[in-house]
Amino acid sequence: MLDLKSMDLEEMTSLMKELGEPAFRAKQVFQWLHRGVTSFEEMTNLSKALREKLAETCFITAPQVERKQTSRVDGTVKYLWRLRDGNCVETVLMCYHHGNTVCISSQVGCRMGCAFCASTIGGKVRDLTPAEMLDQVLFTQLDSGKAISNIVLMGIGEPLDNFDTVIRFLELVNHPEGLNIGMRHISLSTCGLVERIDKLAELRLQLTLSVSLHAPDDETRSRIMPANKGVGVDKLFACCRRYFEVTGRRISYEYIMIDGVNDTDWQADLLAKHLKGTPGHVNLIPLNEVAESPLKPSTRVREFQKRLEEQGVTVTVRRKLGGDIDASCGQLRRKRMKEAE
Ligand code: SAH
């Protein structure tokens, strides 16, 4: 069976040709799928014969809401979706003044092993498909009744570890016949896979790249982020500079503030030093505590911010949304896994 929604318009056009149909049918099918229909019967401008042919050869993905939590504090909604094979992934909907943002997952689990992150605890189960990534946007929009204007790839998984799928997803979600969400409204967050960042730069997409830095020195970074081993902070910053030169897009550096681990003055100074000559800004993130981890949130966020600012670094402190609903990376999926144990 073919995963129709993961196809781009060209692939769908070839399929229609194979089925002996005119090319414009592909556009009609593409439009239906990107509106979130879940059956071929709903595609009312196609002939019954074509609908039947499609149903025999293709399937339409449609995740089920396994769990849904709405924050009483700020209205943030967290979805746990059940996929075709029973695996679950999370999506978070955040409503800001400037629009509605979804935070989507790119893999079931993650193999990057970051010490502070709930998504990686059971390792990576599998990559998501382009359709499964798109569905998180489509079905969040349908379920909530809120039009999505921004997307962040910051949920479960390492997007650049599922590179081709993520690129296909970006093409699909950006497509004028589909949701048509502009690249400048999309952010991709990575733990810093340098070869993949270079590969992404070549595509010159206008999306925002966020690099999860979390420490400016190799000793600390390799300890909390195994992906740093064998690469190192210097190579990562060199790669970020290349990215800026090629794409003209400033990078945003994510920095979770962890008590006694990465929140000292010397680390602020080293971070400022690295950022000299690398345009970009730092986003300080209060650590969300994960049940399985001994790491605690830092109490020095303001001091750290001030020290960076004094050295000319642009810093923002992330507002914490959804704190009452396990809205941080992989926490809800993790909770369900534990309940099932
Ligand atoms: N793998 C990608 C995207 C997923 S993580 C990446 O590493 O960027 C998305 C963001 O959530 C990252 O900045 C990550 O470091 C952060 N994050 C993970 N666990 C967290 C926690 N317990 N508290 C706060 N932020 C967390």
- Could you name the ranges where pLDDT drops below 50 across 5 or more consecutive residues? none
State the secondary-structure class.
alpha/beta
Task: Report the biggest beta sheet as strand number plus sense, adding barrel if it closes.
Answer: 10 strands, mixed
> What's the helical proportion of residues?
25-40%
| Annotation, overall tally of beta strands | 14
Shape: globular
Q: Which hetero compounds are present in the coordinates?
A: S-adenosyl-L-homocysteine
Major beta sheet, strand line-up = 3-4-5-6-9-10-11-12-13-14
Distance between the termini: 32 Å
H/E topology pattern? EHHHEEEEEEEHEHEHEHHEHEHEH
Percent strand: 15-25%
The helix tally amounts to: 11
Radius of gyration: 21 Å
Average pLDDT confidence is 95
